[in-house]
Amino acid sequence: MTRSTGFTEQALPPWRRAVLKVGSSLLTAPGGALTGTYAEALAAFVARSREAGREVVIVSSGAVAAGRGLATPERGAGLAGRQALAALGQTRLIALWQGFFTAPVAQVLLTHDDLRNRRRYLNARSTLRELLALGTIPVINENDTVAVDELKLGDNDNLAAIVAALVDADLLLVASDIGGLYTANPRTDPDARPVDDVAEVTPGHLASAGGAGSAAGTGGMRTKLEAAIKAAAAGIETVVFDGRDVACVGRLASGVLTGTRLRAPRSRLAARKYWLRHTPAGGRIVVDGGAADALRSRGASLLPGGVVGAEGEFARGDVVEIGDGHTVFARGISQYAAGDVRRIARRHTREIDGVLGYSYGESVVHRDDLVVFPE
């Protein structure tokens, strides 16, 4: 009998890029030391997915727990102590993940402030895109060494949902120490029944989810449902499964889920297009005919060579209109402020750094951040 008994096998939602969240309870032994017992099967799933041409970003807890396993028992009390444990354990955590892969693992430490500030958000986004393009496996954690508020929350479930939107993931996979969502807490209620599919997370679901989970982690099923709500707002579906069930994890690589599927009301692309269409624009970028045709017909990014000029004032990260001098036909997120766009207009991408003294990438508006209106 498997740990996921009771959940019906179903097809995993189709995906090309996913975020896999792994909690502390799956990475620590009963005594608190870091262990790869369950991580090995999860890493095998990542490896098989990459062999199939997919991309996976890992959001991994466990730094504080790993540090606690290295420190003397009396150390680590209080906030400063936990921050020190995070710094101590972070290298062990990354070494654990790197030990499972031949591809390089890239450590990325984020705080919620990095994701609230628009410029830092875009910088993180650009870095993660480049890491994926380089064929690395990004392993993301909160920067617990300095992030006071985030360390108090200790909520990597919600961080994973934010990262999923950040990297334009198609799917958020949450590896739990329980099979999925139940009608009640299965640890205390013998009548609790597994829930295979949730069309939309409701207050009733949140109420039945309870509070914190295991002693090693600080989140429970409630934070996983909160993460699913955030992911759904970006058009990203979430699946919760038992990361301790090797057979369950193995089936994921074959496209089979034994757990809970939490659906999004609209597709990722539809959610992003809706947001771009309805967010107030900060200005306008004017393009030539060639660039207009490339954006309309070929799904291209907007490069500086096709830019004629910029109207109004807008900052890096603002939503802007895009037009050809006669018609506004698109909207997108500008990688450069209005003044910078004017300076690099008509330039080749290799000239950006020389003109500005820095570069945020070759695209003025990346195709993933752009919506073209129907003609």
Automatic annotation (TrEMBL):
Residues 283-365 form the PUA domain. Its main location: cytoplasm. Substrate binds at residues 61, 144, 156. Its EC number is 2.7.2.11. CDD domains: AAK_G5K_ProB (cd04242), PUA_G5K (cd21157). ATP binds at residues 21, 176-177, 218-224. The keyword Transferase applies. Pathway: Amino-acid biosynthesis; L-proline biosynthesis; L-glutamate 5-semialdehyde from L-glutamate: step 1/2. Gene3D superfamilies: Acetylglutamate kinase-like, PUA domain. It catalyses: L-glutamate + ATP = L-glutamyl 5-phosphate + ADP. It comes from the Bacteria. It is found in: Cytoplasm. Belongs to the glutamate 5-kinase family. PANTHER family: GLUTAMATE 5-KINASE, ISOPENTENYL PHOSPHATE KINASE. Catalyzes the transfer of a phosphate group to glutamate to form L-glutamate 5-phosphate. This is Glutamate 5-kinase. It comes from Luteibacter jiangsuensis.
